[in-house]
Amino acid sequence: MSDAEQERTLPVEAQIVGMMLEKPSPVSEPIPPNRGLKLKKAKPLLRNKLQKILSCAVCLELRRSAIYQCKYGHLICAGCFGDILSESRLQNEIASCPVCQSTISKDLCFRNVAVEKTIRELPMSCPYCLVQISPESYKTHKKCLCEKRPTICSNNLIGCPWEGPYSQKEKHQDDCKQIAANGFEILKSLNRMDEESKDEVNLYEKIFELLSVEKFSYHDLQFKHCTVEDNVEFETSKFSAFDNLWVLRGNFKDKPSEFHYQLILKSKISAPLHMHYLLVKGPYSDMEIKPKLCQFTFEERVSEGPSETLNLWYHSDSLRSFFHAKRINIRIFIFVNI
């Protein structure tokens, strides 16, 4: 077993203690004149070590979510913890820690609040520019300072539909044609916006109506990398709904800013199954997803739903990098029409 693997199998407390005891400086060592500079350089190194130690043992990412640990102290984020339990339940197996193979369950594992608090003090990644930001500056950067944050044209109230990164707003407004539009064109744009608003209201009314049906369920899932016929795609773990197994699969087809997904039935059915389904952002997710209600009838020979576009409030060129950088938490609601 390599040194890195041995370090990974140690409980988080042991790793932190080992890091603190690493290469101690002699008491008699003189303080060099550029000590302050070295300390500044040491901060990123310390932060990187902490990120490595406190990351989830499954996805190897630093999650700002509930953090569980097995009886030997290995950390698992809430998303991966739920995935492990779900997969084990579907396969009728006992769930185990991916590091030490000890049995894990909701009764045997508990949250490590100290680790959760420590993670919340570490830098956060901006969902638009992917730059690491300190927690105290994160909200200000995301809403006011990030050059790639989503924004709309100042002429939106007179019908300009443009939306895009803040860095392009000034250039757009210099060329915005809406400000020179005549009354008829402005009225036409406003009518279009009014129709879009009505469609949005109808969508929410339909969703609320579906929430009252007898059979519906929701599931918290993670899109993870997978390879299908030499193509890099994203797939969730299998999940059970209405006595059938399902999976979500996604990919980037044409544009790096457009993610497409499919709901796929993995079980055999004897009768058609007409369903509505809806994807929203999952717990602790940075994705802002526009609700889009999909419907499809699954049959014995038709097990794959249509390819749908994941509607985001803002399409960024960094979306592909965002998906490759981490597992994406999503929540799916499924409604069965009887």
From TrEMBL:
What InterPro entries does UniProt report for this protein, alphabetically? Answer: Sina-like_RING, ZFTRAF1, Znf_RING, Znf_RING/FYVE/PHD
Q: Where in the cell is it found?
A: Cytoplasm
- Cite the GO molecular-function annotations of the record: zinc ion binding
> Mainly localized where?
cytoplasm
Query: Which Gene3D superfamilies does the record cross-reference, listed alphabetically?
Result: Zinc/RING finger domain, C3HC4 (zinc finger)
On whether Zinc-finger is a keyword of this UniProt record, the answer is yes
Q: Which GO cellular component term is one of those annotated?
A: cytoplasm
What keywords is this UniProt entry annotated with?
Cytoplasm, Metal-binding, Zinc, Zinc-finger
Where is the RING-type domain positioned along the sequence? 56-101
Protein's UniProt keywords contain Metal-binding: yes
Record family assignment: Belongs to the ZFTRAF1 family.
Question: Mind telling me which PANTHER family this protein's record contains?
Answer: CYSTEINE AND HISTIDINE-RICH PROTEIN 1, ZINC FINGER TRAF-TYPE-CONTAINING PROTEIN 1
This protein is called what? Cysteine and histidine-rich protein 1
Its taxonomic placement starts with:
Eukaryota, Metazoa, Ecdysozoa, Arthropoda, Chelicerata
